[in-house]
Every structure is written in C-alpha cells, then in structure tokens.
Fold:
Amino acid sequence: MTAEAVPALDHETANDRLKKSFATWFWGSMIAATVVHFAAFAFWPELTAEDFSFESAEMEAIELPPEIEIPPPPQQIARPATPVIATADIDEDITIAPTTFEDNPVEELPPPPDEVETDISAQPTFTPFTVAPKILNKDEVVRAMEREYPPLLRDAGIGGTVVVWFFIDENGAVKDYRINKSSGHQALDDAALKVADVYRFSPALNRDKKVPVWVSFPITFQVR
Structure:
C-alpha cells in the first residue's frame, strides 16, 4: 500500500490576525487621540487654577494700662480709752421748799383763762369726731358728675381726681367747700366745685353729740 501525500492545511490563527491588524489599530488610535486633543483646545476655554492664597490679618499691638499702685492699708484705729468715772463732791442735803396753801392762799390765785371760741368754719382745720359723715345721695352725685364733666376733656379721654374740702354743720348740711388738691386741669376743678354743691351728708358725731366738721372727699372724673 502506498502512502499518499497529505496536502498542508492553510489554517490562520487569532494571533496572526492580530499581527496583521496591529498597524491599523495603532494609527487609528493616534489619529483619534490627535482629533480629540485639537477639539478640546478649540471648543473649551483655557483652564486656570483658582487662587488659593490668603492674607493674614495684621496684628495690632495693645497698649497695656499703666500699673496701678495699690495704696497701703489704713492704719488701725486706736481703741478709745476705757471711761473712768470722775469723782465729784455732791451735797446730798438738797431739798425743795414745800408748797402750802398758807403761803399760797386760794383767794389770791389768778383766774382761769377765758375760753376763746374759734370759728372752725373760717378755714379747714382739724375737728375731732368719732363717727364720720356719710354721703346720702350718691346717685344724685353721679348724675351731677356726668352733667358737669367738661365735654372737651371727656371726648379726649382726659380725666382726673379733685380732692375737695367740705364743711358740714351739725345737721349734715354742706356750708362751705373748697379745693384741697387740684387735678391739674382748671376745668375739672371748676366742675368738681359745681358737683360739691350737690352733696348731702349725715351729721358727724363726737361720741353721741352732733358736731360740725371739715372732711375731705375725692371727686374723680373718668371716661368709662
């Protein structure tokens, strides 16, 4: 049997194909990189780094105050000397001359002073009493205050208190009245005097006796 010659097979490997295409891939990559670089320089602005430098604040020297000299502590106050009772010669035989009716007879005594009646209605003065007078007509007084309240002050919301002296006789009748403490507004003071004429009181009592007295009452004007 004769051996027939076997023809050689033409088989191309992956390594062979890579070697053949190497030049194409190399020059293609170089051309692509060149195009990308030129495009970046053409269409993008020039890139610059930010300034990260900083300046330190200038140090200012502080002038220290002059050194304060502390004064020395005060000297200790000397304690006072212990008091000493002085000796004195006192005459113990001291007597007061006796007072007798023989030396001062009753017939020769001076008469007692005359009782001078003072008119307490002349001006406000202290008058003793045990039961104070009371207002008998409060509703009438309120109506008088509303009537006499100055319209200009009432509309402006201005009020005030006027303290008025009243002289009340033993029957409770108001005999005199005057301003004790002003409100600061003459119009309110005048209105308070008009209202004072409306007041009626019960008599004041000193123990069980009716007495004339001076009393002080406030009259207040206010917007409600």
Q: What stands out?
A: DSSP finds four helices and five strands in the chain. The chain has a mean pLDDT of 80.
